[in-house]
TrEMBL record, chain A:
Biological role: Part of the Sec protein translocase complex. Interacts with the SecYEG preprotein conducting channel. SecDF uses the proton motive force (PMF) to complete protein translocation after the ATP-dependent function of SecA.
Coiled coil region boundaries: none
Gene responsible for this protein: secF
UniProt topology in membrane: Multi-pass membrane protein
Subcellular location: Cell membrane
Family under the similarity heading: Belongs to the SecD/SecF family. SecF subfamily.
Membrane-spanning ranges: 21-40, 145-165, 172-194, 200-221, 242-267, 273-295
Record Gene3D superfamilies: Multidrug efflux transporter AcrB transmembrane domain
Residue ranges of domain Protein export membrane protein SecD/SecF C-terminal in the record: 118-303
Highest taxon in the source lineage: Bacteria
Name of the protein in its database record: Protein-export membrane protein SecF
Quaternary structure note: Forms a complex with SecD. Part of the essential Sec protein translocation apparatus which comprises SecA, SecYEG and auxiliary proteins SecDF-YajC and YidC.
Keyword terms: Cell membrane, Membrane, Plasmid, Protein transport, Translocation, Transmembrane, Transmembrane helix, Transport
From TrEMBL, chain B:
Protein species of origin: Paracoccus albicereus
Gene transcribed to yield this protein: secD
Transmembrane segments: 396-415, 422-441, 489-511, 517-541
Protein purpose: Part of the Sec protein translocase complex. Interacts with the SecYEG preprotein conducting channel. SecDF uses the proton motive force (PMF) to complete protein translocation after the ATP-dependent function of SecA.
Protein name in UniProt: Protein translocase subunit SecD
Domain named Protein export membrane protein SecD/SecF C-terminal: residues: 375-545
Length: 324, 555
């Protein structure tokens, strides 16, 4: 017997419903808490969604946030946020900061004068400073991007539910929908709680999470459908447990490979896409959890058609066949 | 039993080889890029090549594929602008141009409608008061005779102007159908002009696209800053030559009918009163090049086309000793006095400009004027170093992720894990091959998409392997187990990947720039990973099985 790494024992018999008040309760609590946090803290929208300018600065001298702020004070730019950026991929002489300026009142278009003034003021503080990236988004576009993002998430949810409904049953579609909303809400809650920058790429990350989470859920559903045909007399709850147990090894393995690859990117991929990668990584964990603990609970509550082998019109014949 | 038809084997291997061949140039990115640039330059020069170009061209054999993955702005560095065309501006000039015609038409009927007068109105609307309110119907029908049908598919059947009357006031404006048609034309023209201007500067692979009804997206790799790009495309560059009526220092003084007061470029307190109708416009230029004036100062030399030259010659010979103004974007650049008739059809613009300015003005005049002003809604500049840092970080992260996944797969599934890893490597190659072949753009989130694919690509294999393990437990022999494993895993693989593809499709529609790049790599990754995970691993597995004929297998 050659050595095999087994993340999950060959045969498991875990009762996934045993603690369902705890697990589903926790999910419900986290989802509700996320809504509360979203309302209390709000999301830390990037310029994609609220307009404004971000300037990335890089210098051989260490970043002095106070001095930067003082230099920008006389320009009267309103809300200015300056943060130093740290990253393991930076060299020793690489000191990076991010300056964010909110959209200027009454200016629909982006004003290059503002950017030039900011750059000049910062150069005064630190002559070696350079500006590797400058991005400005006008309030008009940012308003539209918010709507596009909302539509995209809604359209994805609708399209996936519809597909699941076609391929399975409406109860499965509801289960998938609930677990997807759960994933999106909690991920957004984490973004609101830690005030991580939320921009267009975060939306892309959210959609990716949807894709991954549904992928996981579908594998469980597929096995469930198969087992429902195989074990016609077994209570639904047990068929579900059996299906999750049978696919558990695959679920853990796939999440494992995906997480390993993503963690490599999270650590080594640089700070520019860290928020994006963080959202996906977090979402994969929560998505895996929800496909095991959320989606099928909903299906269990809604109940499901038990006889998959025949058309409903065959009921009479089925009765005869099943008769002793 | 386990079997793959010979033609399927050839097809699978052929597709892999083809994909990898298309991907290969990306391993020698710099060299192939130099080769491609040299080939394009030599072709543009009509076959003649400098020694450097010849060397660059020889750096990559011509018979090999030479398509590369385009790097997005966030990886290559460059400028991105989103501009909105102020289409309503054109309505005003259309109505202003119509006024003399309408005035003429109404003047012909002076006997019945009495005297007429143009009154204050919002931009793009013409209001005319007539003396005899009871004759307003006659005035309306007279103006309506000037209407022409709208020249567009959607607006067919409607006329270009709308005439209405209230009391003694006549209101004329463009009809909605004509406005739509005009908007469309204005944006098309602007797009064309922007493209010509960017091409004149000769940067590599600019992207200039129309977005929505009235926006233009401009992406130029390798340009230093968005400001530089804006200076080039944000200027309207409307050049006219107008007769000078008077000069003065009061911009508020009354200009008189048909005249305008415009400021001087150099002296802000100096104003010219000009006739509004130009003698010649920039549209009649055939060429403009930077040069120097008699004092050695930077200037732009221009040449008129024959009809422009004729008009200019006629005007100058009739007005020797009079000044005329060269007007650029509503500012008087200079107002020389005509010393003698200029019949050669060429001239010079001099004034306050440096050599860069002269160069830029020449480019702008050659490319033509924008029909309407552009407003910039979004602008992004990414420095090339930042892009290179991102590429390096992405490369290291992908490698580490790849090795970790391979390690985990081999540790978990042994020899079968090796098969899956080989398929994974081929999958990576295929992603790059497809990206190169379809000329897609790789962005930073796109790299994340590839890393995500590395992790998720093995999913189909994991599903199959887990199934084979289960089937082995029921002990029906290894060949049967492998076959059943594939059969039973198929529906899960298909459903799981189609749902992900749906998401990728929506992402593509939502996306601008980087997000779109992510959607593209994700979609390609899904398709190639299903192909490699199902067919390539199966081929490897079956080939191994046929050679060894193992009695038992261990997954």
């Amino acid at each position: 017997m050659a050595f095999r790494l087994k993340l999950v024992p060959e045969k498991t018999n875990i009762d996934f419903f045993r603690w369902q008040f705890l697990t589903f309760g926790l999910s419900t609590f986290l989802a509700l808490a996320s809504i509360v946090v979203l309302f209390l803290n709000g999301l830390n929208f990037g310029i994609d969604f609220r307009g404004g300018t971000t300037i990335r600065t890089e210098s051989t001298q260490s970043v002095d946030v106070g001095a930067y702020r003082e230099a920008l004070q006389p320009l009267n730019l309103g809300d200015v946020a300056i943060t130093e950026v740290f990253d393991p991929t930076f060299g020793p002489e690489q000191n990076v900061a991010q300056v964010r300026i909110s959209a200027q009142d009454g200016a629909e278009a982006v004003t290059p004068e503002t950017v030039n003034a900011v750059e000049a003021a910062l150069q005064e503080v630190d002559p070696s400073i350079t500006f590797p990236s400058v991005e400005s988004v006008g309030p008009k576009v940012s308003g539209e991007l918010v709507m596009t993002a909302v539509y995209a998430v809604a359209a994805s949810l609708a399209a996936i539910s519809f597909y699941i409904w076609l391929r399975f049953e409406w109860q499965f579609a509801m289960g998938a929908l609930v677990s997807l909303v759960h994933d999106v809400l909690i991920t957004m809650g984490v973004f609101a709680l830690f005030q991580i920058k939320f921009d267009l790429t975060t939306i892309a990350a959210l959609l990716t999470i949807l894709g991954y989470s549904i992928n996981d859920t579908v594998v469980v559903f597929d096995r469930l459908r198969e087992n429902l045909m195989k074990y016609k007399k077994m209570p639904l709850r047990e068929v579900m447990n059996l299906s999750v147990n049978e696919t558990l090894s695959r679920t853990v393995m796939t999440s494992g490979t995906t997480l390993i690859a993503l963690i490599a990117l999270l650590v080594l991929g640089g700070d520019v896409i860290r928020g994006f990668v963080f959202a996906i990584t977090f979402g994969i964990v929560i998505g895996t959890y929800s496909s095991v603990y959320v989606a099928k609970n909903v299906v269990l509550w809604l109940g499901v058609k038990r006889d998959w082998s025949k058309q409903p019109t065959d009921e009479v014949a089925a009765q005869f066949r099943d008769a002793p | 039993m386990l079997h793959i038809d010979r033609w399927k084997r050839i097809l699978i291997i052929g597709l892999c080889v083809l994909g990898l061949a298309w991907a290969m140039p990306n391993l020698f990115y710099k060299r192939v890029e130099a080769h491609n640039d040299a080939v394009a330059a030599i072709e543009a020069a009509g076959g003649s090549a400098t020694p450097e170009q010849q060397a660059a061209e020889a750096g990559w054999p011509g018979w090999l594929p030479s398509d590369l993955v385009n790097l997005g702005l966030d990886l290559r560095g460059g400028a991105h602008l989103l501009a909105e065309v102020n289409t309503t501006e054109v309505y005003k000039s259309r109505m202003d141009a119509m006024w003399p015609e309408i005035r003429q038409r109404l003047a012909d009927q002076r006997a019945t409608i009495g005297s007429i007068r143009r009154v204050e109105a919002p931009e793009g609307v013409l209001r005319i008061e007539i003396e005899q309110p009871d004759q307003i119907a006659a005035a309306v029908s007279a103006v309506r005779e000037l209407a022409t049908p709208v020249a567009s598919l959607t607006g067919a059947g409607s006329s270009d102007i709308e005439v209405s009357a209230e009391g003694r006031t006549l209101t004329v404006q463009l009809s909605d159908a004509e406005k739509r048609a005009t908007d469309d034309r204005t944006v098309q023209q602007s797009l064309e002009i922007v493209r010509r201007r960017v091409d004149e500067v000769g940067t590599r692979e600019p992207t200039i696209l129309r977005q929505g009804s009235d926006r233009i997206l401009i992406q130029v790799p390798g340009i230093g800053s968005a400001g530089e790009l804006k200076a080039l495309i944000g200027t309207t560059a409307k050049l006219t030559f107008n007769p000078v009526v008077a000069t003065g220092s009061d911009p508020q003084s009354s200009a008189g009918v048909g005249n305008v007061i415009l400021p001087d470029t150099e002296n802000p307190d100096f104003y010219y009163t000009l006739e509004e109708t130009p003698v010649v416009t920039g549209e009649e230029l055939t060429n403009a090049v930077p040069g120097t004036d008699q004092n050695g100062q930077p200037a732009v030399d221009f040449t008129f086309n024959p009809s422009g030259a004729r008009k200019f010659g006629a005007y100058t010979s009739a007005n020797v000793g009079q000044p005329f103004a060269i007007v650029l974007d509503d500012e008087v650049v200079s107002a020389p006095v005509i010393r003698q008739a200029i019949t050669t059809g060429s001239g010079q613009i001099s004034g306050s400009m440096d050599f860069d300015g002269a160069n830029r003005l020449a480019v702008l005049l050659r490319a033509g004027a924008l029909p309407a002003e552009l407003t910039f809604l979004e602008e992004r500049t990414i420095g090339p170093e930042l892009g290179q840092d991102s590429i390096d970080a992405g490369r290291i992260a992908s490698l580490v992720g790849l090795l970790a996944v391979i390690g985990l797969m081999v540790a978990s599934y042994g020899l079968f894990g090796v098969f899956a890893s080989v398929a994974l490597l081929i999958n990576l190659g295929l992603i790059f091959g497809v990206l190169s072949a379809i000329g897609a753009t790789l962005t930073l989130p796109g790299i994340a998409g590839i890393v995500l694919t590395i992790g998720m690509a093995v999913d189909a294999n994991v599903l199959v392997f887990e199934r084979i393990r289960e089937e082995l437990r029921t002990a029906r022999g290894p060949a049967r187990a492998i076959e059943r494993g594939y059969e039973n895993a198929m529906s899960a693989i298909v459903d799981a990947n189609i749902t992900t593809l749906i998401i990728a499709g929506i992402l593509f529609m939502l996306g601008s720039g980087p997000v779109k790049g992510f959607a593209v790599t994700l979609s390609i990754g899904i398709i190639t990973s299903v192909f490699t995970a199902i067919w390539v691993t199966r081929l490897l597995m079956i080939t191994w099985f046929e050679r060894r004929r193992p009695k038992t297998i261990e997954v």
